[in-house]
Amino acid sequence: MEHISLYNGVQLPILGYGVYQIDDLKEAERCVSDALAVGYRLIDTAAAYSNEEAVGAAIAKSGIKREEIFVTTKLWVQDYGYEPALKAFDVSMKKLGLDYLDLYLMHKPYGDYYGAWRALEKLYREGRIRAIGVTSFWNERLADLFNCNEVKPTVNQIETNVWRQQTAANEFMALHKIAHQAWAPFAEGKNDVFNAPILKIIAKKHGKTTAQVMLRWAIQRGISVIPKTTSKARMAQNFDVFDFVLDQDDMVAIKSLDTGKSPIYDETSPDIALYIGSFKIS
After folding, report:
1. Which end of the chain has fewer beta carbons closer than 10 Å to its terminal beta carbon, N or C?
2. Which is the catalytic residue, given 49, 104, 110, 113?
3. Domain residues of the chain, as ranges?
């Protein structure tokens, strides 16, 4: 497994397993157990996914040493603010059944994320979290956050896929030594991405699937990816991306797919901001 060295020295696996939209606890536990058996050592969950208990149960039953598994969870907007964030962290840790967390992310850039960030800084200084970061912060909000606080985010997890390649964000984060992690690396299947002609040609050339090509493309850009599937066979396929390299022609061809906008939703939209800001998880 390749790793990204965060600016504080913590090693982030470049490939992990995400559990978004697996809200049935038995199914989520089975999926995480399968992912760990395949070889994944980065598991990405969130309070808003309603499956932290399942993730914790699978880790506890795995027999794998705790220090060998990198666990990420996220603070939801409903619990932003200093005191609410501290309480929400304790709830997440109880559900996960863990003594410490590897990475804690603020889930979206809305609400009192300044108060929440200062709570995360406190937890980080206390050693309860090895690294702190954010999700879906576009460049302006990311710059404002670290410019006005003491601890800079180690990670920014943003939508990144062949339709929305995030070149400017990638360059900005690299400049400031903030790791780029991709959510929705398969674009949630939008625009029939698995059957995109360019990807199919490249996949055939390398004897791989289009999914493997998409993951390899991100990894070669230095981007950590957390694909989700409920199929153990596909988990294994997604994990098998370190035995081939996309050449320059492949990378140029994939770059031509960039639309510059999200195929899922526009996070800068006022309607999205209103929806996320009012969405309750408890």
Report:
1. C
2. 49
3. 3-278
Beta strands in 111-216 (DSSP E): 129-135, 155-159, 179-183
What are 26-46's pLDDT values in tens digits? 999 999 999 999 999 999 999
* CA 184 – CA 179 distance, rounded (Å): 16
On whether the CB atoms of residues 153 and 72 are closer than 8 A, the answer is no
Of 104, 39, 107, 117, nearest to 72 by C-alpha is 104
pLDDT in tens, 146-167: 999 999 999 999 999 999 999 9
Q: What are the angstrom distances between the C-alpha of 127 and each of 90, 103, 131, 147, 191?
A: 14, 11, 9, 23, 43
Q: Which helix (H) or strand (E) holds 274?
A: helix 270-278
Distances (CA, A) of 218 to 47, 149, 227, 245: 26, 30, 11, 11
Predicted local confidence at residue 238, as pLDDT: 98
Q: What's the pTM value of the predicted model, to 2 decimals? A: 0.97
> What does CATH list as the number for 3-278?
3.20.20.100
User: If you search the block for the tokens 């536990």, which residue do you land on?
Assistant: 29
Query: What residue type is assigned to position 148 of the chain?
Result: C
* DSSP-assigned states of every residue in 225-266: E----S-HHHHHHHH--SS----HHHHHHHHTT--SS-SS--
Has 49 been annotated as catalytic? yes
Amino acid at position 42, single letter: L
Beta 11-13 vs 3-5: how paired, if at all? antiparallel
CA–CA dist 35, 155 (Å, integer): 23
Tokens (6 digits) for 272: 């999205």
